[in-house]
Amino acid sequence: MSKILAIESSCDETAVAITDDGKLLANVVSSQVPVHEKYGGVMPEIASRLHCENIAVCLEEALSQANVKYEDLDAIAVTRGPGLIGCLHVGLQAAKTLAMIYHKPLIPVHHLAGHIYANEYAGEFRFPLLCVVVSGGNTELVLMKDHLDFEIIGETKDDAVGECYDKVARVLGMPYPGGLPIDRAAKLGEHTYDLPTPWAHKDSYDFSYSGLKTSVINLVNTLKMKGEEIRINDMARSFQDVAIGMILDKATKAAEEYDVKQVVLAGGVSANSYLREQMQKRLANTGIDLIIPPLWCTTDNGAMIAKVAERLYEEKVFAPLTLGADPNWKISDFRKFD
């Protein structure tokens, strides 16, 4: 039995959740998207300041929803990384303060592990499984042979897929974040623009999105200079086919090679309807199970951090109050935080 309060503040959502032996009692999220959309992306300094303003409010709201007091908790969990350093610090300092005042163990949680374990709200894990982690800051293929056993078999060498979506959306005149607008436009378009597939090496599970992003930007600028029409829906469809196609190709190949029983989607880009539909088609009749996270937990939230914290609590993976944030923390090193 464990009652855990979990804090997430790695980017532009201030989030607090409380679970009681796996049951979600509260899940409070304060999103900063309306603030950052006017800049076309997350402004780190502004994000950090907004976390400072929102963290106390989110904590109090979570306690109220769960009808518990700090004294009732068994542990305080927090996202230690990866993420924006200033944003991580706000959540970490709040968690360390609560742990110190109320004499509770401090549980450091890896942000991507949180996204992966958010899938436990949708189904039970079957090992070995392949995690397809796709978000604004990360694109990884992670093999799991058991709980809390993470092996990175492929990762982006430059831009993450979500970051690429945001930058392409900006050049096409679409709002931030760019994932949903491009996904919607792509459904209305045709694949008529010839775009390259970077890092298409058959013997590698790594990704690269900088070349695709640059190709779209250069093509749009060229068309503008020539005074030619830019067919926005067709451009969105052409881009999405290539961007998601890379993920589908590498993920299905890895699932077969590693003989996994299950594939799970994780991260903000896992909300993409094309990725969801095509992954279902690719895995149909293969005997490989697929877990697609509910939309509410594809974006950053405290509930996903609490899911990981529950298992870490059982294993007594606690951190000292000298714990620091690590914006580049590798998921394979999630137990290393000295």
Oligomerization state of this entry? Answer: single chain
Main sheet overview: 5 strands, mixed
- What is the CA-CA span between the terminal residues? 27 Å
Number of strands: 10
Reported by name, the CATH topology of the largest domain is: Nucleotidyltransferase, domain 5
- Overall 3D geometry? globular
Q: Give the CATH level 1 class of the largest domain.
A: Alpha Beta
Order of helices and strands: EEEHHEHEHEEEHHHHEHEH
Instruction: Count up the helices.
Output: 10
Strand content: 15-25%
Mean pLDDT: 95
The rounded Rg comes to 20 Å
Major beta sheet, strand line-up:
3-2-1-4-5
Uncertain residue segments: none
Coarse structural class: alpha/beta
Q: Under the CATH scheme, which architecture of the largest domain would be assigned?
A: 2-Layer Sandwich
CATH superfamily heading of the largest domain: ATPase, nucleotide binding domain
Tally of discrete structural domains: 2
Question: Percentage of helical residues?
Answer: 40-55%
List the defining traits of the structure above.
about 350 residues; alpha/beta; Nucleotidyltransferase, domain 5; 2 domains; five-stranded mixed beta sheet; 10 strands; globular
Structure description:
Helix content is 41%, strand content 18%. It has a 5-stranded mixed sheet, sandwiched between helices. The chain has a 5-stranded mixed sheet with strand order 8-7-6-9-10, sandwiched between helices. The mean pLDDT is 95. It has 2 domains: 3-116 and 298-333, ATPase, nucleotide binding domain (Nucleotidyltransferase, domain 5), CATH 3.30.420; 124-292, Nucleotidyltransferase, domain 5, CATH 3.30.420.40. Helix 5 (161-171) runs parallel beside helix 7. The protein has 10 helices and 10 strands. With 338 residues, it is α/β, with parallel strands linked by helices. A hairpin with a 6-residue loop joins strand 7 (139-144) and strand 8.
